[in-house]
Design a protein that fits this description.
The complex is a heterodimer of chains A (120) and B (113). Chain A is mainly beta and 120 residues long. Chain A has no helices and eleven strands. In chain B, strands 2, 6, 7, 8, 11, 12 and 13 form a seven-stranded mixed sheet that branches. In chain B, strands 1-3-10-9 form a four-stranded antiparallel sheet, with no helix packed on it. The relative contact order of chain B is 0.33. Classes of the chains: A mainly beta (120), B mainly beta (113).
Chain lengths: 120, 113
């Protein structure tokens, strides 16, 4: 079945970097973009952007460009989210999701989520 | 940005009763050229990722029970659970994909009364 499996929780200090992985299975990886969505404690889901796994072109939401970097390795069907210069406000659960672009853009399925906690 | 709001923030419904969740966009999500509303609904159970329920405002995803239905157009949308089951306890989110950035509603928590 179609599945996205993310890497485990991370505890980082402010200023450090973290790289979250998202391994896809059950479908052709390069046929669907992968989106990243974060959910800070008590907050709504926040779309961060996506990466076109066919062309390699990323699209970042305003505020995500700069410290957030999307990448992928098609040989292992894995997408990555790197967050640089971590801040306490980056503490959140980060989800990857396959983008269904049948004229629109909705997300199905989602990875199980990766908690990134930033604390000194 | 298209801002999404939801009401109520939470609701408690008896088993077997109807639950209704509202979602409102600051701008119309109806694309005139194809007459489709660019809105999806998700269910998020505790400790789990969101799960797609509905897209195009009213098209149920494969495998989603038919007690879940979506309706509405332009700026106002509704997710209805016709007969609440215990496994429906969750937070429900609407999402617009009419334009970037994609935005979500704040969520509505559904509990059993």
């Amino acid at each position: 079945q179609v599945q996205l499996v993310q890497s485990g929780s991370e505890l980082k200090k402010p200023g450090a970097s973290v790289k979250v992985s998202c391994k896809a299975s059950g479908y052709s990886f390069t046929n669907f973009a992968v989106s990243w969505v974060r959910q800070a404690p008590g907050q709504r889901l926040e779309w961060m952007g996506w990466i076109n796994t066919n062309t390699g072109s990323p699209t970042y939401a305003q505020g995500s460009a700069g410290r957030f970097v999307f990448s992928f390795e098609s040989s292992v069907s894995t997408a990555y989210l790197e967050i640089r210069s971590l801040e306490a406000e980056d503490t959140a659960v980060y989800y990857c999701a396959r983008v269904i672009s049948e004229g629109g853009n909705w997300f199905d399925p989602w990875g199980q989520g990766t908690l990134v906690a930033v604390s000194s | 940005d298209f801002v999404m709001t939801q009401s109520p923030d939470s609701l408690a419904v008896s088993l077997g009763e109807r639950a209704t969740i509202n979602c409102k966009s600051t701008r119309s999500l109806l694309y005139s050229s194809n007459n489709k509303n660019y809105l999806a609904w998700y269910q998020q159970k505790p400790g789990q990722p969101p799960k797609l329920l509905i897209y195009w405002a009213s098209t149920r995803e494969f495998g989603v029970p038919d007690r879940f239905s979506g309706s509405g157009s332009e700026r106002d949308f509704t997710l209805t659970i016709s007969s609440l089951q215990a496994e429906d306890v969750a937070v429900y989110y609407c999402q617009q994909y009419f334009t970037l950035p994609i935005t979500f509603g704040p969520g509505t928590k559904v509990d059993i009364k």
